[in-house]
Every structure is written in structure tokens, then in C-alpha cells.
Specification:
The protein is α/β, with parallel strands linked by helices. The protein has one domain (76-298): Pectate Lyase C-like, CATH 2.160.20. Helices cover 19% and strands 45% of the residues. It is globular, with a radius of gyration of 20 Å. Residues 30-41 have low confidence and may be disordered.
Length: 299
Amino acid sequence: MEERERILKLLEDGKITADGATKLLNALGETYRWGPRHVPGPDLGERIARKVELSLKGLPDMIESSIWFAGSGEEKELEFNPKDRLVIKAVSGDVTIKGDDERKIRIKLRNGHKVAETENELLLKTMSGDIDIEVPKSQKVELKAAAGDVSASNLASELSIRCGGGDLKLKNISGRLTAAAGGGDVEGKDISAELDIRVGGGDIDLDLSACRGVGRIELGGGDINLTIPEKANVELTIHRPKYGDISSDFDLEPSDEEDELKAVLGKPEAKLYVKTKHGDITIRKRSVRSDSERKRSKK
């Protein structure tokens, strides 16, 4: 983290541009996160990373041209009424999003920012610095970030995250979750959302409380660890890694596709597809007793 903080300090001091900081942070993420066995294959990892890069192309310059940039300043607190959609576009800094039972959007940040508000959408643009956001649980949220860690919890609608590099931590997410990252680890607990997760390189560790809709988890390089309730009703499809092993508490059978294994759990009401090119896939079974203990601990 020391190197990352040094880069952000150079950005705040105006010694490097936002675009230069983004490139340095992305390069730092690759160096630290991808060991020899985690280097993504050109046909998956690089493709995922490239798509994310293209979707974020021009983000630093766009924000820099529309925001007065301040190196540091006092913490600011902004408050808005809920909108159909909250959109956050950030160049650097960590972003924390928490859902609650209040009917307000509250934002804490420092440094330069710009807010655009319409009848249906609230748009926040920032150059640097951490952002803490509290929203109603049912708020739809879309985040685009060039670099920085992201934490999201207690959200029950649609959450879309697209970032160049940084870790993603999730807790108590339902509804629909779409996440795409060039690199970084993904960690989630109590996840019951319909999933579409695609990461270029890093590890994915998810504890699922339920499986919804048609879900997909794709990783270019790294390990995937999933915990699934033993009473889940899902059809699980696992793509065999080119370099890596598969371990499962559930019985897996060959699929019609040569490189895939399947498990039919309960009476399937959902589907989940899991794939990594370089790395291991581990599927763990969580007992009903474990679920009951976890529910009691929340009370």
C-alpha cells in the first residue's frame, strides 16, 4: 500500500497527471497481484482486462476537465433525496457504499468534485480521495473507478461496478450484481444476488446465501472459492481450468461440453457458470446448521 499512497500523493500535489497516476496504479496492481501461476491467459484474462480498460478510457481526462482540482481540504458532507439511479465516476481513492433504512443519499468526501442532478439520476464525479456513501437499501448504484478499493454492503437492488484495479469487498448484497475489474481480489459474504462477475486477474472468494437467475463468474487468472448452501436449488456448471484443479463438496458429473462439469442441486431455480483459466476452483457446501447459526449472530 505504501507505493499506492505515494502515487496518490504525487497526484494530489499535481506532480503527475490523473492519466499517469491511473497507469501507475494499474501497473502496481499487476505486479503485486499476479504471481507466475496467476498470469491471465491471452484469450480470457487479457480480454476481460481490455474490455474494462476500454470502458474506462478517457475517464481521468473527462473528470479532470470538468472539476476544479483541489489537493486537499476539509471533509465535505453532501445530502440528496433518493433518485432512480446513483452514478459515481472516480479516478483514484477508495469507495465505500452502504445501504441503510434512511430515505437519503449521504456522501462524505474531500477534494474536487462535481455533482449533476436530474429528476431521475444523481451523478458524482471525483478526481481523488476516499468517498463514503450511504444510500437506501433499494437504491440502484453504478460505479466507474479507474483505481482504488471498493466496498459495498446492505444493498438490495442493482449494483454495477467497473474498475481498472483494486480489491472489491461485498457483504449482504441481493438483487443484481454486475462487476468487472482489470485486476484485484473479490471477497463477498452473504451474497444472494444474480451475479455477473468478470475479473482479469486476482482471487475470488464468495459465500453465497442463495443463487438467483442466470449467474456467471469468469476469472482470467487466480483461484475461485465458492461456498454454496447445501439446500440450494441451482444448476452449477464449472469450466475445467487449463492450469489448475477442481475440488467440490458436491458431486460433479461430466457435461455435454468436453471441458465442463455439472452439478444439479435440489430443484434448480437458478444457474451458475464458473470459469478460471489459470487457477484452482473450490466449491464448499455450507450446512443448514451453519445458516441457522449465522442468522442468530445477526440478531
